[in-house]
Write a sequence for this structure.
């Protein structure tokens, strides 16, 4: 029925959701926590270089540790920075300031002033700063600035294991990074992860073991991809007025995803499909099509996803200088 749903809590399947438990990454989480222990005693913690293929729980593990830190003590401040969205020293400084309770306009205030004021608020605490997707940072000077804090640990996360090779030897020496590789999940671990999310997200009886198996083996070791398939399969079943997810729903979703990069989240996949189907579409028109097909999404989020697709080389966006809210761009798949 129109007023019924198969989902118990659909937010469990959002790519930003931090799991309640991560037994498959228990060892890695313990290692991260061990490196951060000195911060609780007012000393410098260790710096960590986390790497591994997409979808292996690197971000989720760091966020999980950060959530536990918030519960454990008020004397250690965790700051998570997404470097896809914040690529320059200035934007990272703005994000650090925002997370410490200070809001600045995007332009007009010197970067050094923003950082100095933020550091003053953090002076008497331990600080752990995570730069996720650090390989997207255009200016590594920000890392030097962060090292000036007295009691700090820096976590660098990337899919690229060779990222350290591109850093200056002087910076590598100062960081003295501890290496932490996230290795691929086994098939059994993938099934456990998918099953746990399914139990939390769907009502009883909607997902069976056959569905869990099918999603797991078609996701390789990429949990993000598995969770996306689980979410979209549930939506496909609802659209089909089915009271449970069937294999045909899963296979339909997988078939639609085969030509899409595994790293893309659900919103990006939908936006890319719109651009593929409407060559040269103006960004404003693409936004309207997205809302009509998939529901409400803020224009700010939509622009962020467009920027991410462009940075990955999947689309090209040419400024027109006119049109939708004064920032219209013509979009094409590369």
């Amino acid at each position: 029925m129109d007023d019924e749903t198969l989902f118990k809590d659909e937010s469990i399947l959002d790519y930003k959701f931090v799991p309640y438990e991560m037994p498959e990454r228990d060892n890695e989480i313990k290692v991260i926590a061990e490196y951060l222990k000195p911060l609780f005693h007012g000393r410098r913690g260790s710096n960590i270089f986390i790497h591994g293929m997409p979808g292996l729980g690197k971000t989720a593990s760091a966020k999980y540790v950060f959530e536990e830190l918030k519960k454990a003590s008020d004397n250690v401040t965790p700051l998570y920075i997404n470097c896809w969205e914040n690529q320059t020293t200035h934007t990272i400084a703005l994000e650090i300031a925002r997370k410490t309770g200070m809001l600045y306009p995007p332009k007009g205030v010197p970067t050094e002033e923003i950082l100095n004021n933020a550091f003053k608020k953090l002076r008497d605490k331990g600080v752990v700063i995570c730069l996720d997707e650090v390989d997207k940072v255009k200016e590594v000077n920000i890392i030097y600035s962060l090292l000036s804090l007295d009691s700090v640990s820096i976590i660098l996360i990337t899919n690229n294991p060779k990222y350290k090779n591109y850093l200056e030897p002087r910076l590598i020496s100062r960081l003295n990074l501890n290496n932490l590789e996230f290795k691929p999940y086994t098939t059994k671990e993938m099934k456990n992860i998918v099953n746990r999310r399914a139990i939390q997200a769907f009502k009883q009886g909607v997902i069976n073991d056959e569905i869990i198996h099918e999603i797991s083996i078609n996701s390789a070791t990429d949990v993000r991809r598995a969770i996306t398939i689980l979410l979209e399969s549930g939506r496909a079943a609802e659209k089909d007025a089915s009271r449970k997810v069937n294999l045909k729903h899963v296979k339909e979703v997988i078939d639609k995803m085969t030509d899409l990069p595994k790293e893309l989240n659900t919103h990006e996949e939908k936006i890319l499909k719109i651009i593929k189907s409407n060559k040269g579409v103006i960004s404003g028109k693409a936004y309207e099509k997205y809302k009509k097909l998939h529901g409400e999404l803020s224009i700010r989020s939509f622009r962020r996803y467009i920027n991410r697709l462009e940075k990955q080389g999947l689309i090209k966006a040419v400024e027109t200088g006119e049109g939708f809210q004064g920032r219209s761009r013509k979009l094409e798949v590369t």
Remarks:
- The chain has a mean pLDDT of 87.
- Strands lie at 48-51, 76-82, 126-132, 152-158, 178-181, 281-282, 315-319, 329-333.
